[in-house]
Amino acid sequence: MSEFKCHHCRESLQGKKYVQKDNFNYCVECFDAHCANICAECNKPIGADSKEVSYKEQFWHNTCFKCFKCLQPLATETFVVWDNMILCNNCVSQQALSKCKGCLKDIKQGEQSVEYKGTIWHKDCFVCSNCKEVIGTKTFFPKDEGFYCVACYDILFTKYCVKCNKPITSGGVSYQDQPWHSECFVCVNCSKELSEQRFTVLDDKIFCVDCYKNFIAKKCAGCKNPITGFGKGSNVVTHETNSWHDYCFNCKVCSVNLANKHFVFHQEQIYCPECAKKLA
Q1: Is pLDDT above 90 for 133?
Q2: What is the pLDDT of residues 88-123, one digit of tens each?
Q3: Which of 134, 117, 116, 115 is nearest to 126 (CA)?
Q4: How many Cα neighbours within 13 Å face the side chain of 105?
Q5: Residues near 27 by Cβ (< 8 Å), separated by ≥ 6?
Q6: Within 10 A of 256 (CB to CB), how many other CB atoms are there?
Q7: What are the DSSP E strand ranges found in the chain?
Q8: b/e map of 111-137 (b: 16 or more CB within 10 Å)?
Q9: Among candidates 48, 11, 21, which has minimal Cα distance to 32?
Q10: Dist CA 267 CA 145 (whole Å)
Q11: Span 23-42, average pLDDT
Q12: Which pLDDT score is estimated for 16?
């Protein structure tokens, strides 16, 4: 059986306090003198009887691990590393707020600055994402990750109604990739707003369903009702100057439906070939 000795001084460790490191055993005296990690703050060994904190291959006495700014002990607290400084949550918030988002330099006391949603810039660093002119404290518009002066935002992003040619500041309707104010997207006949209504277009004119049925739509030669193209009867049969709902295109005699079938048109009436043979 191998002897239980200190790896450095070779003294017996039987009945003594010892420390194990890298699979070797050391007496407390040798560990403190030759093997202990050095504290990154006080540059003294972290002895066997001390509590140790480690972060990214660096070591501290637990009493030396403090916020760089306010010296709050952080051994049992959350912390943030900022510009190689260990900071408590409160100090890192203050540090972040005092650094310009544009040039990444500190904003010194008394310097003019602009703050937006928790981010801060030097006044002259807060510039338009498009033209790069200084916005400073003037009106601007945020868009995605950028900030735009009024002129650039108007050129790049503002939509203009195709009817009144005025800017659409909110909401609106898009039809065939063209923008409209909701109040401008109306039936050409009755001026009813159509932003959330069914409508149809004829010769680039927009009609509500009622106006299209009553004034524009062709009448079915069978049932005499409008052919709107909506719902039942959306399929149409046309012959010469007449039109029918597909379900109305029936033989005058036997009533068989003749949509997509052979038929005979005689004296403004529709007949199947068999019934047509019996005509006088």
Answers
A1: yes
A2: 888 876 665 578 888 988 877 778 888 888 788 899
A3: 134
A4: 9
A5: 6, 8, 9, 11, 13, 16, 17, 18, 19
A6: 13
A7: 18-21, 24-27, 52-55, 58-61, 80-82, 85-87, 113-116, 119-122, 140-143, 146-149, 159-160, 167-168, 173-175, 178-180, 199-202, 205-208, 236-239, 242-245, 264-266, 269-271
A8: eebbeeeeebbbebbbbbbbeeeebee
A9: 48
A10: 72
A11: 89
A12: 85
Q: What is the DSSP letter of 50?
A: S
CA gap 119, 29 in Å, rounded = 53
What's the distance, CA 95 to chain centroid?
29
Decide if 211 contacts 217 (C-beta within 8 A): no
Q: Is the per-residue pLDDT at 187 higher than 90?
A: yes
Max CA distance (Å), the chain:
134
Burial class for 78, CB neighbours closer than 10 Å (0-12, 13-18, 19+): exposed
Provide, for the chain, the percentages of residues in helix, strand and coil under a 3-state DSSP scheme, each rounded to the nearest 5.
15, 30, 55
217/231 Cα distance (integer angstroms): 14
Q: How much of the chain, in percent, has pLDDT values that exceed 90?
A: 27
193/187 Cα distance (integer angstroms): 7
Taking the C-alpha atoms of residue 2 and residue 162, their distance in angstroms, rounded to an integer, is 94
CA–CA separation, 38 and 60 (whole Å) = 7
Q: Select the more confidently predicted residue: 232 or 255.
A: 255
- Identify whether the C-beta of residue 106 lies closer than 8 Å to the C-beta of residue 98: yes
pTM score over 0.90: no
CA distances from 232 to 208, 228, 248 (A): 18, 9, 11
**Which alpha helices (DSSP H) does 68-215 contain, by range?**
89-97, 150-156, 209-211
